[in-house]
Amino acid sequence: MRLVAKNIYKSYKDVKVLKNLNLMAQMGEFISIVGTSGSGKSTLLSILATLDRADSGDIFLNDINLNTLNNRELSKVRNSEFGFIFQSSNMIMHLNVKENITLPFLYSDNTPKDLDFRVSSLLQMLNLSNYENKKINQLSGGEQQRVAIARALINNPSIIFADEPTGNLDLGNTKIILKTLKALSKEGKIVIVVTHDSTVKNYSDRVIELEKL
Amino acid sequence: MKIFLKNAIYDFENAQKAFVRKKFQSFLSLFGVIIAIASFIVLISVSEGSKKEMIDSLKDLGFNTIRVTLKEFSIISKDLNNISDGLSLSDFRDLQNRLSNSFIAPLYSKKSVSIFHKSSDFTTTLLGSNEEFLFIENLKVLQGRPFLKSDLKFLKKVAIVSLDIAQKYSINSGSDLIINNKNYEVIAVASIKDNLSSFVLIPFNTYPYQKSSFDNINIFTDDIFTTKQIVDLALTKNHKSLKDFEILIPRQILEQKLKTQRTFSIITFAIILMSLVSGGISVMNIMLSNINEQTREIGLRIALGATNIRIMQQYLIYTLFMVLLGGFLGSVLGYLIVFLISFLTDINILISLKSLLFAISLSLIAGAIFGIYPAKRAKNISPISALRDY
Whole-model pTM? Predict the structure, then answer.
């Protein structure tokens, strides 16, 4: 698996955010993207994750140019190949833990038969055994972020995008999350983390620093 | 198709849960739809009821009948009335000659006439007519024989009694009745209908309360409009151009009434549609507010792989659920009102499945119309700004 960004340009109105950006992420890499506020870290992540489109330039997933895909095809790519972790856990509060974790399968053509097993294995891995039926508001911030990781992994994606995943967490929870992400990269997944947190650098194989244009 | 159904079921269940989470607000927003659908059910039930009543009454009067009556004159014109004999025997004979293919019956009618049977007496409407009367009125001879031409020719004192009188006073063919001190032999028992439910019928030429004018001349014909013209011409001529008669065509009266009712229904329906539009706008409003509140959730769903169409479907089904619920509650309320109306008043009501199906279709159409804009808005939410800004 390989994710490549070629000659990416992006601006909002007259403000240039990304200029001729090139990046290649290989299987098993843990990449952190750092930079000052407004340097375009989150914008880059959104473009790589197909949540936003670049003004020019191309994103390749293996040999597929994602810019050539329509919205429906991009949704499919996001659903099957990408996992997302955001700064706030972005849980749907009226769904329980299991329903939040299995949310990507609502938008997938196939629901695996071993879904329950997958959910309980992930929760076990994240030290959240037997949390399936808990309400989101019964969980701490760290627990919610771990549920978000479980949701990002339920589809067994190739690439995990994390936007400030430790931004709202204490040191203990930060370490748990980063260790988990590191373990995932070691399993062969590409992990791309946008962060302000200097601790993330210690877990990264590569750090990309963006400067404000 | 299977996936579409699976998704639709999920969205429907989700809509139910969302409704319950904001039940008070959601219920209030449904009020317009509930009132519109309830009014619709009441309108349809009442108007169908009155239509049925009108048609039934026409059936009683006859689809192919013409009724000639004497006009009710004002005091001044009563003098004019004296010039003419009204609907006289010669008018009847003249019409008989002119309308050889039609059935014609003259009619005397007097209410509350005392009639003696054995040693007791009873009062009823006494009718005097000919052998064609029962056919024109669509009444059947249940027992005995109808009048024959010879009964009238030889002024026979024979009588036909209605079923209710026969049953109530144990009168059969062969029984004797005393009417105005004259003896009549009962020859038949006849069926009844709403406007002729209790009567004793005797030949008009033996009628004890004969006047110069019949009360009616009733005609059964295949071509009511040509016949009406013939009757009009003949009587105008016989009465020396004095229009002291009136030709009533029940079918024409019904058509006129139906036309008036239709106009009334169209106006009421337009008002109901306006109320449905206002109800639909309320639902649209709450949907837009829901979408506003759920922007982050929508962004998340799109990030996790939901297509725009899928998001649109979710919110369209949510709106459809809302209006269908409104339609259901409105129908229940409507039928409750209909039930109360029929229980407390004598207004004729017709409850039909058709009105329920129409109400549900109306709700669905409203849901589709007022759901499309919020659903489109949800579909166009940018995941990146939704996740970042909210």
Answer: 0.72
